[in-house]
Amino acid sequence: MRHRRSFIRDTSGANAVEFALLSIPLLLMLMGVFEFGRMYWTQHVLEEIASAGARCIGVLQSGCTKNGVYDSASTISYISGRAAVGGIPLTAANITVNNNTTCSGLTGFSSVQVSYTFVTVLPGFLSSLADGPHLNAGACFPNQGA
Known about the structure:
The protein is α+β, with helices and mostly antiparallel strands. It has one domain. The chain has helices at residues 2-9, 14-58, 72-85; strands spanning 65-66, 69-70, 95-103, 106-117, 134-142. Helix 2 (14-58) packs antiparallel against helix 3 (72-85). It starts with a helix and ends with a strand.
């Protein structure tokens, strides 16, 4: 009878059991926070890239021109190169450029639209991000060049 009471009152393994039960949800939540932060950072980089691309077209920077004239292929190469520096692989299919468009009802603007499918590093655990949310960014800049 005495051994039974000591066995019931013994709590030496309780901490290990509690940790085992709580560590998995805690780690999943922590990884979710990391992945959300990575996704938010990726969206920010896409917006920066779209702004830089629209500005490049608008002021006819050397990265977006060929012989001093706007060139769509050079612009897409410039934008995908800037994205690669940020660790985001973009192809021509992800980038839409226009050097003469209307933005907010005003004409004479250059615009860049960038789309990207975010890929999580934990697709098996974070099923809500497994298919990859589609991130989009766009920017306009007034044309300054001739």
